[in-house]
Design goal:
234 residues, alpha+beta, 2 domains, 5-stranded mixed sheet, elongated
């Protein structure tokens, strides 16, 4: 005569499960997903009985709060990005509106600061190689050969926060600058190295780790506008 073999599930009793859970009080903390497959009590079951329904409600509240916070952050990031795109578009249009080279330089060193909401905008050019025609204008600073390579360390863009402004870049406004964006501007093989610098009194406006796509695009626009006005090749 054959006997029926009991599976572990058949031999498992409620009292065994309760005893095991009491012996392992942190099990549900380590495996909260188990609660998703349980049916909580619909009313108070008496003193000493865990209110799983309350636990699940609290967990859902925490999940909801986390989702709300994440959504709020995403909306804020999107808003900031949209604002940045709009400013870069306005800056590009301002550069295109220049009717002569002097107006173009003024747009870089005066108008861009207002449009981009920074305190100072400067174009810095090295003194080596052939001078850029008409480059000695207000808002443009000249530095010794090799200075820009030393600043940039092989990078095309630097975003730096919580700094002290460099006098070689900002002159008398250096004491005001607490963060900066420094963008390499490669106008032509015939012209010396240059950088476009934006300085802000806000120590967190620019900082390492921020995206450089938009400001780098503006630098590329400046390069091409220089070539058009000066009628020189890349």
């Amino acid at each position: 005569m054959m006997t029926e073999t009991k599976t572990p599930a058949d031999s498992l009793k409620e009292k065994d499960i309760l005893a095991w859970l009491k012996a392992n009080p942190h099990f549900l903390q380590r495996h909260p997903d188990v609660l998703e497959h349980m049916h909580p009590p619909k009313e108070d079951m008496g003193k000493g009985v865990a209110d799983f329904q309350h636990y699940m409600v609290e967990r859902l509240k925490r999940d909801r709060d986390a989702i709300t916070e994440t959504t709020r952050d995403l909306i804020e990031v999107s808003r900031v990005n949209m604002n940045s795109v709009t400013r870069i578009q306005q800056a590009t249009l301002k550069l295109l509106e220049a009717r002569n080279f002097i107006q173009f330089i003024q747009a870089i060193t005066m108008d861009l600061a207002t449009i981009l909401d920074v305190d100072v905008a400067v174009l810095v050019v090295e003194s080596n190689g052939n001078d850029i025609p008409n480059i000695h204008a207000s808002g443009i600073r000249v530095v010794p050969a090799g200075t820009i390579a030393q600043w940039m360390q092989g990078k095309t863009a630097l975003l730096q926060g919580d700094i002290e402004g460099t006098e070689a870049i900002y002159g008398g406004a250096a004491r005001l600058v607490r963060s900066q964006s420094v963008l390499r501007v490669d106008i032509s093989m015939q012209t010396p190295p240059a950088v476009l610098c934006f300085g802000s009194r806000d120590p967190e406006m620019f900082r390492d780790g921020q995206g450089t796509e938009l400001v780098s695009f503006l630098a590329r626009v400046v390069e091409r506008m220089f070539r058009l006005w000066l009628d020189i090749p890349a």
